[in-house]
Each structure stands twice: as C-alpha cells, then as structure tokens.
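Sat 14:20. Reprocessing the chain from the morning session after the first attempt stalled halfway. Input below, unchanged.
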Amino acid sequence: MPLTVLVAVVAGGIALVVLAVHLSGGSRVAEIADTDAALDRFMIDYPEVDVLRCILSSDRRDAVLELADGHVGLVHAVGSKYLTRFVNRGEMAAVASAAEDGGVDLNTGDITWPRAHMRFADNETARTVADMFASTLDSVANKRAA
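Finished this time. Tokens:
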C-alpha cells in the first residue's frame, strides 16, 4: 500500500473516532445544575460535613460551600468530571477581581490546580465568596467553629 494512502486511511480513522466520541457526548463539559447538585456531589466525598450555604457561580462551573465548622468546600467542574476540595480558611487566597464584575481570582497554592477564576452574579456575591477564604473569621463563624 502506498504511503500516501496509508496516511489518508489513518487520518480518516482518527477523524471518525474523534467524531464518534463527540457525538456520543464524550466532549460534553460538566456543569453544576443547581445548589442541590453541588451539595450532592460534595457529600459523595465528604459525607460527614454540615453545609450552611452554597453559592453557585454564574457559569455553573464552580460552587463554594460554607461549612458549619468554619471551613470552605469547593466543587469545580473539570472537563466532564468534578473536583471537590475541603479547604481550611486561609489555605487558599481569594480576591474579588478588579477587572471583571462578579469575578473572583483564587490562588490555590496547589501544583495540580494552581489558579481558578470564578464568575458570580454580582460584586457583592464575589466579595462574600472571597471573604469565605480569609484566614480571619467573623464572630458568627468563630462561634460555629468553637
């Protein structure tokens, strides 16, 4: 078989496999349907925690959970799967984005997921989320953590 024909057959076969995977839903990007879905997903990995509230990002790729013991929970969509994290306050740095309304820039300090950018409905929600990662707790959170 001539080399040009072989290259064409291999390229065509690869294109057909990629198309089949795409059409069967293999390239679907995960989204968090609602706060209940985020809670359900977080509870799979951390069934022992009590969640006080869940804030879902406007693009439905992230959910930030305030936990009863003063910690923070994260659910992040990665491709077609979900990443969950149990975070100590102050372990990750989060700041409301100055460049984008409702944006939060998260520096995780983790080599596998070093940075994240989350988008929320408004600046107030973004500041609330950023404050959840702060190392100092307000008096209400201090009482819950004690």
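The chain has two domains: 1-28, 35-145.
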